[in-house]
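Ticket #4471: structure output looks truncated?

Reporter: J.K.
Steps to reproduce: submitted the chain below (279 residues) through the standard prediction queue, then opened the result file.
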Amino acid sequence: MRTDKLVYFLLKAVPQAFFALIGRAATDAERYQFKSVEIKELSFRLDGIFMPRFINDALYFVEAQFYLDNQFYQRLFAQIFIYLKQYGNLPWRAVVIYPSRSVESRNIAGYEELLASGLVQRIYLDELPVVEDVVNLAALFKLLIEPQKTSVQAAKFLLERFPEQVDFIQQVLFQKFSNLTRKEILKMLSIEEEFEEELKKTRAYQEILQEGKLEGVKQGIKEGIKEGIKEGIKEGIKEGELKGKLEAVPFLRELGVTDEKIAERLNLPLAAVKAIPLK
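Returned output as attached by the reporter:
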């Protein structure tokens, strides 16, 4: 998946990240509907448009530009004004997302006033703080340009802060490590593929996401089954590891996992699991 496709994925799936990136409240995403629109006359397709739900809000044109294109601004403004011609005049803003200034076109003759007008916001991802210092969902954009050698660490940090964005974080790593299998990448993130899918299907997991309680449960899982869900657990588990697994059983029950499945995944006797009292 190319980087511009990942940006589209992020804009569509996590619009709150876009509004955090441009300095607005993440909750402002509720005031907009995201669309990808084709300009019919020239067969252009804009990366994304945030359509306002309220009449006084501005329309946002969004373009991700990750390579040098000396005709970029000519194309961008042509798309904007043809769109306004086709769909009606509206107050508008344009946001261009660059990985760095090095890929920005210097061919801006005739467009200087538009670029200086405040209608166009240019964002350079390499000038954002490091992932760990970005305090909101805008950190997801920063992951797009994270060097391969530090991307796994950054991805794990983001999973800790935004576990509900696991799909996007995985997609970024799939692109950065295209030579690895999905299973290998999930292992790098300390995610057990089958176990992850089972948890995501449970009603309790969805409720936890909605209520913002995932952090507490995640901490319990981290303490109790960090070693337990890995494949190929060797015989002769140490007493401390066994204690951690047993402490994790109540949390897994809350997520809707059966005692039989818990015993299988944690490599515990079923009788030992059933001996733990229900909450």
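Triage note (M.O.): checked the attachment and the full token line is present. The radius of gyration is 23 Å.
Status: closed, working as intended.
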